[in-house]
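Support case: NDP complex. Customer-provided input:
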Amino acid sequence: MTQTHVIDGKEFAALLKTKIADQILNYKQNFTPGLATILVGTNPSSQIYIKNKIKTSHDLGIKSYHLDLPATISEIALLAEIKILNEDSNIDGILVQMPLPDHIDANRIINAIDPQKDVDGFHPINAAALYMNQKGLYPCTPTACIYLLKQTLSSLRGLKTLVIGRSMIVGKPLSLMLLHEDATITIAHSQTIDLKTLCLEADIIVAAIGRPHFLRGSWIKPGAVIIDVGINRSLDPDSKKIMGDVCFEEALGRASAITPVPGGVGPMTIAFLMYNTLKAACLRRGYEVPDMF
Ligand code: NDP
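Agent response - structure generated as follows:
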């Protein structure tokens, strides 16, 4: 039986946020980073995410600007709002909360954001920068996964790493980041054959699937490190419990380390959004970007 270390994402996030707040204070004489958030419609989960982001901005000394727009807003009107924010020199980061209503093309919205203010790291220019391992704004959740892995393992060099999920938000960018850390990558998705065997071969598994408790304990190689990105509602409609993609209880005693849900990758994602806002502010204004790794 392996002793499993539970990776405390809340604690790492608190440390990271303190460092970010210190740097913001450091630059106070020169500038205050500004983050603009846009919420279209009244999706309750999106409202909670946005509220957290605004609160964290305030806590860290980032100036926050928020736009609450009706679900009926036209794509053209939303593009016009983004143009205003792109041109506003006080704004360093622009975040449009996803998902957007069906009549709005999310890609067109992402592409309209100034890449220098794209703190989600979804713009094609930033995606290309990541692909080429060049400077840019990188997506927050994959960055959070890399940070937690490096805190746990120090080096990822050569390790057999299985990423389950190939979304543009998590799986794909994370796979590139892992590659840049010299890990040996396998990417699995819904069409993958014999996922269990792939899991049993992996030194590291990152689960970004969106299915509660999908990955079972018996699929984990003893001693493997598990990063659980999933944030899922319980299958029981009466329960408000949030569940990961990994069956946490079964992983205990088998994995050498695992992130819990909640309290693992989630808090780190918000911390890295704040970091990206600081980074965007420094890059745009010609100041040195503080290193948080
Ligand atoms: P997507 O739905 O965009 O992608 C899910 C991926 O899982 C797809 O690539 C899909 O494959 C794959 N998949 C689905 N079923 C299976 C299966 N049976 N076997 C193997 N792979 C499968 O989700 P996201 O990437 O946006 O999010 C994934 C999870 O992470 C969700 O629970 C989400 O809530 C959470 N999340 C958490 C964040 C955080 O801060 N902690 C941030 C972002 C997301 P295919 O491509 O073939 O369809």
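The chain has two domains: 29-114, 139-266.

Case will auto-close in a few days if no follow-up is received.
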